[in-house]
Amino acid sequence: GLADAGPNDMMLLPNNGSAVIGASMMVIQGQHVFSRGELTLTSRDPLVDPFLDMGILTDERDRVRMEDALERV
Predict the structure, then answer these.
(1) Which pLDDT belongs to residue 60?
(2) N or C: the chain end with fewer CB closer than 10 Å?
(3) pTM score of the predicted model
(4) How far, in Å, CA of 64 to CA of 32, rounded?
């Protein structure tokens, strides 16, 4: 596998379409993710939304693997 992720880390999954998008697509799924996000409670009020930073692709190892998957698609 690329970037310390091990073998069979990335999966390329064909999808027959979506009611929202209305077209066929290819899903890229990483099994071992190195990037980390953060969930912060912004209030003691349970009706107030928390702050969510998903941190997607913030780790270089995830970016390397995603670029490889996009080239394959």
Answers:
(1) 94
(2) C
(3) 0.71
(4) 13
